[in-house]
Amino acid sequence: MKTSPFFQNKRKLNLLLTWMFISFVSTQLFAGTELILQEQEEIEYNQFSGVVLDKDTDEPLVFASLSVVGTNISTVTNTDGEFLIKIPKNLLNGDLVVSILGYVQKTIAISKLLNENNKIRLNVAVTKLSEVVFELPKDAKSLVRSMFKKKKVNNSDQHVKMTAFYRETTKKFSIKSRPNRCRSNHQGEQTIKRKSSWSKTT
Fold it and tell me: Are strands 45-54 and 118-122 parallel, antiparallel or unpaired?
């Protein structure tokens, strides 16, 4: 069966339009990628490396955070306390914040960093607690009386439901054993579920 010239021309037109669309999209993608690469090449970086240490022991601090203030540029130290960070040259007048849990946060001017072999030492953070006073009872009777006075404070009247599980093994005729599962609550009630029935012995 022959195809009419109208459908043949329509098919050629569709193929031509598809080819033109693909060519246009490819050109735009290529141009966009080339522009991004040019922008990345235009941005110049300075690379800084070093180690973060405990000021008192000189031990390396693992997973310490280093971040440039006001940006999302950051890094963390490795298992040896070493770090490597790249900072754009237009941010060299900024500050670098070094922090880790349990130590005092430190802010360093990026302009004072060396390109390598930087040694950043952090002080241990000391948290002062409020004073605690212990009063010793005069005798055993006063201790017991004080305990009963504070019974309502130390023991809440509100009902609290707690469920605990444990397993135990019992034996019959020292031949077969079966595990029991027991569930108990705070009121001392117990429910035992049998896992299997006794096996008969010959």
Answer: parallel
Note down the domain range covering 59.
Answer: 45-122
In this predicted model, what pLDDT tens digit does every residue of 6-65 receive, in sequence order?
A: 445 666 667 777 777 676 666 666 555 555 555 555 678 899 999 999 999 999 999 999
pLDDT averaged over every residue in the chain: 75
Say yes or no: 62 and 113 in one domain. yes
The identity of residue 54, as a single letter, is D
- Asked if 49 and 117 count as a contact pair (C-beta separation under 8 A), the reply is yes
- The rounded distance, in Å, linking the Cα atoms of 21 and 95 is 49
Task: Work out whether strand 176-185 and strand 163-172 pair parallel, antiparallel, or are unpaired.
Answer: antiparallel
Q: Would you call 78 helix, strand, or coil by DSSP?
A: coil
Q: How many domains does the chain have?
A: 3
Flag whether 5 is in a domain: yes
Asked whether residue 129 is assigned to any structural domain, the reply reads: no
Residues 51 and 105 in one domain: yes
- The vertex-16 CA angle with 10 and 17, nearest 5°, equals 90
The pTM score is 0.48
Strands of the chain, DSSP E: 45-54, 65-68, 74-76, 82-88, 95-99, 106-109, 118-122, 163-172, 176-185, 190-194
Rounded CA separation 99/122 (Å): 8
